[in-house]
Amino acid sequence: MLVEWEFNNVKEMHEQIVDVASHLPRTKAIEQTDNYWHAVVRSLIFRFPDDLEILQIPSKGIIQVRSASRVGVSDLGVNRKRVDTLFSRLTKD
Fold first, then answer.
1. pLDDT tens by residue, 15-29
2. Residue 64 maps to which CATH number?
């Protein structure tokens, strides 16, 4: 699942999204640059790995968030829920 969010201050929002994402359960960051953050999120029971990526594109004023399963055909909506959780936690602040 890939979504794009528009923000006025992309750099600041990127930092906030990464902060929220890094505190999700069973999440381990594996790569980080100024514009990009990549983590592996493990499922609770079977520990299946999912990729969670956050990319800021300042020239377009957007942040892309991608959450995808590495294994299997269906994720049973887990990746959609993860992205929705990120957005809802951002809008609470």
1. 999 999 999 999 999
2. 3.30.310.80
